[in-house]
Design a protein that fits this description.
This protein is α/β, with parallel strands linked by helices and about 425 residues long. It has 3 domains: about 5-205, Rossmann fold (3-Layer(aba) Sandwich), CATH 3.40.50.300; about 210-275; about 290-420, Winged helix-like DNA-binding domain superfamily/Winged helix DNA-binding domain (Arc Repressor Mutant, subunit A). It has 19 helices and 10 strands. The chain has helices at about 5-20, 35-50, 70-75, 85-95, 110-115, 120-125, 125-150, 165-175, 210-220, 230-240, 245-255, 280-290, 295-305, 310-320, 325-335, 355-365, 365-385, 390-405, 405-420, and strands spanning about 25-30, 50-55, 150-155, 180-185, 200-205, 260, 265-270, 310, 340-345, 350. The strands form 3 sheets. Strands 2-3-4-1-5 form a 5-stranded parallel beta sheet, with helices on both faces. Strands 8-10-9 form a 3-stranded antiparallel beta sheet. Helix 13 packs across helix 15, helix 13 (about 295-305) crosses helix 16 and helix 17 packs antiparallel against helix 18 (about 390-405). The longest helix has 22 residues, at about 125-150. The two termini are about 30 Å apart.
Length: about 425
């Protein structure tokens, strides 16, 4: 609700893309205004039309993990599951990158290395050669795949992208011209990518909802019962039209009993003058986390330490092997709107519905407890990603560093450095977020 004009505009850009007039779109706005939501709703509409969508997400720690979103895009292009063994990856890459195609000539070692599969040929490449060939491969991949079908590429939370990926996204953005590819990215205003330029680049600046759109959203959430008639004014005044804040206010009022009923059919249980609305969305989220049962809260906090996205096997390594309790906690967290399931197969993958939710859950636990969980995540990654440790070395180092285990962190940093020492970095115009 409240973003139909923006979605209609994106669909008009898509129509131009389908006519072999590839476009790049940046959706820009502050936290909570609905950047990711607009993009995700748009790509769902694309999927409903049969348009191929490839997604890559930049987690908050992503600036320290080279090529994370590019690797995710390539895995999606090649239909590789996250848990595929090395031999499965080798066969799939060899099948899908035909040697008869000049654009993919000699690309096999480079792609295998990017995907974390050991390849001696790739290790011999010079810095300049590696960077040039990665860029050439990504350009050719984008253009080749869009020749057969329209494609939408979504880059979520691009303000957290690493420099090496930023360079390659610039190559991809330049290559979509006169193709059937739409590159869609969302990011905060402090990120000013070098690829956000040219005649085929468009920017959609999202502001908080105006009063009319805000009321439409509130009416959609509350319903039409006469008792809630004065509540939209109060919510508008407190939230300033931030859609995420609006939804959290309604959920909080329902959780505390001020609203009875269900979404879209609530009634107010007390005079509107007595309804207390917290001053910030963070305070609402903190209260919601505190009201969770201990087991469910522990699962949420452990997931927050893993990151914005997490899979069930890794979460199980951290919180314990009691399958029934974990499954119940994950269902409860989905029903409460904290997380949502991304993919059910081959293993369940989840994501926080909003970065602020993850941030509040992360900081709702003592520093010592967070450090223990970071160490558990590092150990879990070492165990579950044993056949792809080169690919995950930087991420493992990040968790060891956050746990306070500097010796382990340095060991994995060295391993990550050996892997990426030939990767050229650059292309940023701003200081990465802390």
């Amino acid at each position: 609700m409240g973003r139909e004009a923006e979605l209609a505009w994106l669909e008009s850009i898509l129509a131009r893309t389908i006519e072999s007039n590839g476009q790049v779109v940046g959706v820009v706005g502050d936290a909570g205004v609905g950047k990711s939501r607009v993009c995700l709703e748009f790509v769902e509409r694309c999927r409903a039309q049969g348009i191929v969508v490839h997604e890559a997400h930049c987690p908050a720690h992503g600036a320290t993990v080279p090529l994370l979103p590019v690797r995710e895009l390539v895995r999606s292009y090649l239909a590789l599951a996250d848990g595929d063994a090395e031999e499965v990856v080798r066969r799939s890459v060899a099948t899908q990158l035909p040697g008869s195609d000049a654009g993919f000539e000699d690309a096999l070692p480079l792609v295998l290395d990017l995907l974390g599969v050991p390849c001696a040929e790739a290790s011999d490449l010079s810095s300049e050669n590696r960077q040039d060939r990665l860029g050439s491969f990504m350009r050719h991949l984008v253009r080749t795949r869009s020749a057969a079908e329209a494609v939408v590429l979504l880059l979520d939370d691009a303000h957290w992208i690493d420099p090496a990926s930023d360079d390659l996204v610039r190559e991809m953005a330049a290559s979509v011209h006169q193709t059937r590819t739409l590159l869609l990215a969302n990011f905060r205003p402090d990120y000013q990518p070098l690829w956000a330029q040219g005649a085929h680049y468009h920017q959609l600046a999202l502001a908080p909802l105006d009063e009319r759109a805000s009321r439409e959203l509130v009416d959609h959430l509350l319903g039409s019962d006469g008792s809630v008639g004065g509540l939209p004014d109060v919510i508008w005044e407190r939230t300033g039209g931030n859609p995420f804040f609006i939804e959290e206010v309604v959920q909080a009022l329902a959780a505390t009993g001020s609203l009875a009923g269900e979404r879209g059919a609530y009634r107010l249980t007390a005079p509107v003058e007595t309804v207390a609305i917290p001053a910030t969305v963070q305070s609402i989220l903190a209260a919601r986390v505190d009201r969770l049962g201990e087991r469910t809260k522990h699962v949420l906090q452990a997931a927050a330490v893993i990151g914005k996205q997490f899979d069930e096997p890794l979460l199980k390594e951290i919180v314990g092997p009691v399958d029934q309790d974990l499954a119940a906690a994950l269902v409860g967290l989905q029903e409460a709107g904290f997380i949502h399931e991304l993919t059910p197969y081959p293993q369940p993958n989840f994501a926080f519905r909003h970065p602020l939710t993850r941030e509040v859950a992360y900081h709702s636990q003592l520093g010592e407890r967070r450090a223990q969980l970071h160490a558990a995540v590092a150990v879990g990654l070492e165990k579950l990603r044993a056949n792809r440790l080169g690919e995950f070395a930087a991420l493992i180092a990040h968790h060891w560093e956050a746990s306070g285990r500097r010796g382990e962190a340095r060991r994995w940093q060295r391993r990550a450095a050996l892997r990426v020492s030939n990767i050229k970095v650059g292309g940023w115009r701003r200081t990465p977020p802390a």
